[in-house]
Write a structure and sequence with these properties.
By secondary structure, the chain is mainly beta. Helices cover 10% and strands 35% of the residues. It is built from 3 helices and 6 strands. The chain has a 4-stranded mixed sheet. It is globular. InterPro entries: CheW, CheW-like_dom_sf, CheW-lke_dom.
Length: 117
């Protein structure tokens, strides 16, 4: 259960207890500048670690988890939506489609005043 933190940025959904640790939860819809879902479905949190700190990313759904080689990664296409491009670390071609790879460093690159206490 995510607990809202008063006076935090709209990109910070709050904090939650993840295996005994209090972690900051980032709302990926807000981070990407997308509206809240109209269907009322509950989002799920995916845990990520960055430089020894744990975070939760609030997402709508998750597909297959893949391990991809670095040599298959390509630069962001020039026509990638700017909201996504600022958080993307490149793309991979999978089955004739492009899969955007989120750069966790960029996703969590929030101004200090936006971070939960």
């Amino acid at each position: 259960r995510v607990t809202r933190v008063p006076l935090s940025s709209r990109e910070i959904a709050g904090v939650l207890n993840l295996r005994g640790r209090i972690v900051t939860v980032v709302d990926m819809r807000a981070r990407l500048g997308l509206p809240k879902p109209e269907d009322g479905k509950t989002a799920m949190a995916v845990g990520v670690d960055l430089r020894g700190e744990s975070y939760g990313l609030l997402i709508d759904q998750i597909g297959e988890v893949l391990r991809l080689s670095e040599d298959g990664k390509e630069e962001n296409p020039v026509n990638l939506d700017p909201r996504m491009a600022k958080l993307a670390g490149g793309v991979h071609r999978l089955d004739g489609q492009l899969m955007v790879v989120l750069d966790v460093d960029r996703v969590l690159e929030l101004a200090p005043e936006m971070m939960a206490a």
